[in-house]
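Inputs:
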Amino acid sequence: MTTGIRFDGVSVAYGGDVVLDSLDLTVEPGEVMALLGPSGSGKTTALRAVAGFVRPVSGRVFIGDRDVTDLPPHRRGVGMVVQQYALFPHMRVDANVAFGLKARRAPKDGIAARVAEALEMTGMSAYARRYPRELSGGQQQRVAIARALAVRPGVLLLDEPLSALDARLRSDMLAELARLHRDLPDVSMLYVTHDQMEALTLADRIALMDRSRLQDCGTPQDLYRRPRTEFTASFVGTANLLPVTVTGDGVRFAGAVLDVPAGTAAPGAPATLCVRPHAIGLGEGPNALRGKVTEAQWRGATHRLCVDVAGHRVTADVGEPHGTPPLGTEVTLHFAARDAVLLPAAAAGAGGGAAHG
Amino acid sequence: MLVHSRRARRAVHAVFLALFLPVFALPFLVVAAASLATRWSGILPAGVTLDHYRAATGGDAIDALTTSLLTALAASALALVTGTWAALAAKGSRARRVVGLLFMLPVAVPSVVVGLSLLVAFSRPPLLLNGTSTIVVLAHAVLVTSFAHQAVSAALDRLDPAYEQAAASLGAGPVRVLLRVRLPLLLPSLSAAAGLCFALSMGELSATIMLYPPDWVPLPVKVFAATDRGALFSGAALAVVLMVTTFLVLLAVSRIRTRAVHR
Ligand SMILES: Nc1ncnc2c1ncn2[C@@H]1O[C@H](COP(=O)(O)OP(=O)(O)O)[C@@H](O)[C@H]1O
Ligand SMILES: [Mg+2]
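Outputs:
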């Protein structure tokens, strides 16, 4: 049994405010799709449209090949895990996990085994007889996941499931979720998060949301290496976004000509050059940029340098072994042509994130 | 109130007792003393006898106590069901305020008016309830439903919708969500409301006195009758019996609530 999710032009409005604008998105069976975007971009709303807690004003939602747009939540057969866990406080852990099985009238003699299996899978077997309030946040989240998985849903919806946990626990749980996905290759997951690390780590593909719209969709590598918009470049990973002008065989930035594949861009057109901080090296090299160090942070394995290049701030993560250059030093930075991506210049007023100095 | 030093805490307790004792405790102490008294000495009861209690715990009086208990149980159950139902039905809709105000009307008018209006409304077949115990229960329910409705509405507003949504996404239909998730989560408020309704009904007199049939005489009517004919000491003994019984029932209800909260 494999089930995907399909949004077909789904729009949601709250009292006239469109908070989800004709979303078209397909989650393939067994795929982990991260819905990534800033807070308020409509991610939760999209997830609630799948779960059935909000009715689209237009468009259809499919789970597998079943149109569920008009089905009430309890007939949709999805598993859901939310940020605040929502474990039933008056039931012990095992009763919480058994709730969905009883609601779906699973055969009585099978329930105990399925509960044990779900608790085993999330490593919570030892806590079956506890009440939720007797568990830590991380343990509660595991129980919430066990509860959602016990009914063996084809689709698992997760809404910022780790955001209430501290950083350490979050990375542990992230690994757990990745393992769960390997153990359950048939379950499609829609994973809502505003944290790019979670999306990059867990997702097969990332759907990028901003201002109620789907902005971009692709594999993490794809979005990271070949972003198509400034928004993607700045939201997936960190990026230097430099305003440039396309010339015949490269781009002009702050008076210097850089050797960057210009693709199909017309000569003379304004564009944005995207270079990742870790792709920038210190010292002479191709595509040299000269400027003064304005900020330096030691980050263990690397230094993060902020360099003022002709009024533009360029950030570089360099593995300089001889200590941080003092502030104000003139330095030369360089990057390889293949590490740079030329993006269409953002329309005025839209798509923030350009690193203008 | 956060008070840290021991002396300050003592002072706060002293002020509380100074305010509490005369207003709340003293009248009850006088009633308790009167229930044991044989005569008045000045403004205070004097002498000691258990005769009044012998009368207050035998025959007629026990019947009246049972009547009161049954009436209060039935009325608070009815009020709780009606109030909860209305609160659940009107949740999130514009009807909510209107329903709340409607339930409040009987509390706002003198109870005698409630008694009178029930008397008139149910005086003719097919709605002939005059002279039955049902009309007494009905009157009490009408008088206390507002308290149940208010308590449950407020609790429903505070209830995080995430619980019922989690239940629904797990495949639970509306009835299962109500019985297994919402009502259990509302249990503390429901039991608090039940206690309040019960206590109010146990002490109700003004509407009852217009409606009670000869075979359904609640204890407050007996108390009133006793004091009315000048038998203050017997009336006091009956009142003490009423208070102690109500107190014990409330204690039991609050134990249920404590268990519900601490799960
Ligand atoms: N129940 C609601 N009523 C009105 N507006 C809402 C409601 N839920 C969400 N919104 C609005 O919809 C927008 C998108 O919300 P949401 O989907 O929760 O964003 P995200 O999950 O991406 O942070 C926000 O501007 C939010 O204020
Ligand atoms: Mg959200």
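Remarks. The two ends of chain B are 27 Å apart (CA to CA). Chain B has eleven helices and four strands.
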